[in-house]
Amino acid sequence: MFRHMLVPLDGSRLAEAVLPLVAALGRRLPARVTLLHVVEPEAPPTVHGDVHLRQAAEAEAYLRGAAGWLAGQGVEAGIVVGQGADVAGVIARRAAEAEADLVVLCTHGSGGFRAFLFGRVAQQVLARGTIPVLLLPPDAVRREEPFLCRRLLVPLDGSPMAEAALDPAMTLARIFGAELLLVMVVPTLATLTDDRAAAAKLMPTAGTALLDAEAREGLSYLDGVMARLPRDGIPAARRVDRGEPVRVLLDLLARGDADLTVMATHGRSGVSAVWAGSVASRLVAHTPRPLLLIRIPRES
Fold first, then answer.
1. I need a labelling partner for 131 at 20 to 30 A (CA). Which of 55, 203, 267, 298 fits?
2. Which domains are assigned to the chain?
3. What pTM does this model have?
4. Residue 152's CB: how many other CB atoms inside 10 A?
């Protein structure tokens, strides 16, 4: 798992925020690394404050410089220049052609562009195959500092589909010598949003009792998951928290309780229809830490 990383770079310093993480992964796995730049026709003159690369020769020179930095970190990288107006589509196609098993890219800050990257690049890569996508907020890692991973956060919801994140999380825990933190979030009466909310308002005592029972069942479920994990020395902990799932997970990350989140998500087409309001899409908009999205296998 994770033998070939495809790393799209757009020529900006923001995009290069992924390089320390790529270096850390490349050394430890070890894995092949391919740096990709997509030359866009009629591209704007700048991208995130840097000059936009408009020619293939410029792109090759830029990628060679990034590859040189990685070489100084002990990681060899190849370079590829693609072309096309549909940048997300080119990345997805190149990832499939190169048989990459991990795409690493920067989310480029907040607001519309972050939504663009998640909705276009990550969604298309996940929708067209089973390639995991590792998203990195630009301020999560400093270029001059090595990436360290001491604990991985793995959100689970009690379903086998969510457990698709466990094997990749175990792989990363092994190479970093990190701990796994398995988390399940059970709502409170105030944070219920599904069809149970109306019933809970009518019968708050019964609703509270049911949610308390759900929390106890959650602990039992996580204990069962931990018992099934391979016994190869990877430390693991579990917890059930109460509240709104995204808020709870973001609070854990803000406190420094984990350095990287690994979670499963659907990769179906139609971001607004499928991912709107989902934990994954809302996390990627606000997480201060890297987020690895694992494609939930298609149902047979």
1. 55
2. 4-136 (3.40.50.620), 151-260 (3.40.50.620)
3. 0.87
4. 27
